[in-house]
Write a structure and sequence with these properties.
This protein has 54 residues and is mainly alpha-helical. It has 2 helices and no strands. The longest helix has 25 residues. The radius of gyration is 12 Å and the shape is elongated.
Length: 54
């Protein structure tokens, strides 16, 4: 698993925790961070020709 994929997975875990705890500011921040990370993971997968599953 590439580092970018691990970072994206960690963001998903953090988002779940923030939603459970009701941390709305944290939810907003994580959601805004996920978009660029998703693009980076996708671009990296194209470069490596390896499939990425979300």
């Amino acid at each position: 698993m590439s580092r970018l994929v691990r970072i994206y997975a960690n963001l998903a875990d953090r988002l779940d925790e923030a939603r459970e705890q009701g941390w709305l500011g944290e939810v907003a921040a994580i959601v805004s961070m996920r978009v660029p990370h998703r693009r980076a993971v996708f671009a990296s997968s194209l470069a490596d020709s390896a499939p990425v599953r979300f």
